[in-house]
């Protein structure tokens, strides 16, 4: 696969689309536990559109016969950057499928196109949000989610071909490297865990991370960031009250300073819920190399941290 540096850059994580066997469980979990606003104008029995801010949706959940990641939507700053990224993807030999007008309207974007990275992870690139509204209201009165130019949050995806896939995201989609973390494997027969973190063209420490182990769901975890530790704590109370299993207890990460916990939602999807994420100068940031994940806490109940 030939990889060339793109003249376009991905600006932020725009949206994520999940497929689920239990749409009703997600309706409750998304609104009553995570505090996302259900966009009732476009949601129905088969698909849910959750809002975090003025965008018409950030998390899209669709009923399916399996639980898996359908797509990660990466926002480009405009039409020119979008076309440059598509050209760069096609240069690598990867297939690109441009979405139709109806599917673009469903996502609340002007144009989008889908492809897969070298590890087979599905993603989309898009430009120019449509349907923006300033009437976001969390059903749990959450003050706000940390989005805006920082994007939706971050996503960690499986990448056993981690070196090749890293080159794809850096050279084709324009990501910058933030941190390279290696931890001893807790599982016999598996390689040491290597998580590589990347920032898009915004101040969030990382919008993407690649984890060198496979994952049957196609998504290791998704971060949602709120504005205070009290919001994190009250969500944790809701998690306990609803008997949702934790993937990791409350703790603080070393590399991005995030104070968070991880919950396993419907279908096995892991959600990191946190605050205090590190902001960086994405144009001048010096990549770090780490061998320690946490300042404190984050006692993992599962062999797949991030």
UniProtKB/TrEMBL annotation:
<feature type="domain" description="VOC">
    <location>
        <begin position="151"/>
        <end position="276"/>
    </location>
</feature>
<protein>
    <submittedName>
        <fullName>VOC family protein</fullName>
    </submittedName>
</protein>
<feature type="domain" description="VOC">
    <location>
        <begin position="12"/>
        <end position="128"/>
    </location>
</feature>
<dbReference type="InterPro" id="IPR029068">
    <property type="entry name" value="Glyas_Bleomycin-R_OHBP_Dase"/>
</dbReference>
<dbReference type="InterPro" id="IPR037523">
    <property type="entry name" value="VOC_core"/>
</dbReference>
<dbReference type="Pfam" id="PF22632">
    <property type="entry name" value="BphC_D1"/>
</dbReference>
<dbReference type="InterPro" id="IPR004360">
    <property type="entry name" value="Glyas_Fos-R_dOase_dom"/>
</dbReference>
<dbReference type="Pfam" id="PF00903">
    <property type="entry name" value="Glyoxalase"/>
</dbReference>
């Amino acid at each position: 696969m030939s990889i060339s540096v793109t003249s376009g850059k991905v600006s932020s994580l725009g949206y994520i689309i999940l497929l689920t066997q239990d749409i009703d469980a997600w309706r409750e979990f998304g609104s009553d536990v995570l505090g996302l606003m259900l966009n009732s104008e476009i949601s129905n029995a088969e698909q849910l559109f959750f809002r975090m801010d003025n965008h018409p949706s950030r998390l899209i959940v669709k009923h399916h016969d399996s639980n898996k990641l359908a797509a990660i939507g990466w926002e480009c700053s405009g039409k020119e950057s979008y076309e440059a990224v598509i050209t760069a993807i096609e240069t690598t030999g990867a297939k690109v499928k441009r979405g139709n007008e109806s599917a673009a309207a469903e996502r609340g974007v002007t144009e989008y196109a889908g492809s897969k990275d070298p590890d087979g992870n599905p993603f989309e690139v898009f430009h120019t949000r449509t349907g923006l509204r300033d009437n976001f209201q969390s059903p749990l009165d959450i003050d706000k989610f940390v989005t805006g130019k920082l994007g939706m949050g971050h996503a960690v995806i499986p990448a056993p071909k981690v070196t090749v896939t890293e080159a794809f995201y850096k050279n084709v989609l324009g990501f910058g490297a933030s941190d390279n973390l290696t931890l001893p494997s807790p599982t016999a027969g598996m390689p040491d865990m290597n998580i590589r973190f990347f920032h898009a063209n915004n101040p969030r420490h990382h919008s993407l991370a690649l984890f060198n182990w496979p994952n049957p769901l196609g998504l290791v975890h998704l971060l949602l960031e709120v504005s205070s530790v009290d919001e994190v704590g009250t969500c944790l109370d809701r998690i306990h009250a609803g008997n949702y299993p934790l993937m990791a207890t409350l703790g603080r990460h070393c590399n991005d300073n995030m104070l968070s916990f991880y919950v396993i939602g419907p279908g096995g999807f892991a959600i990191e819920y946190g605050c205090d994420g590190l902001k960086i100068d994405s144009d001048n940031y010096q990549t770090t190399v780490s061998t320690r994940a946490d300042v404190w806490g984050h006692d993992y109940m599962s062999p797949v941290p991030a």
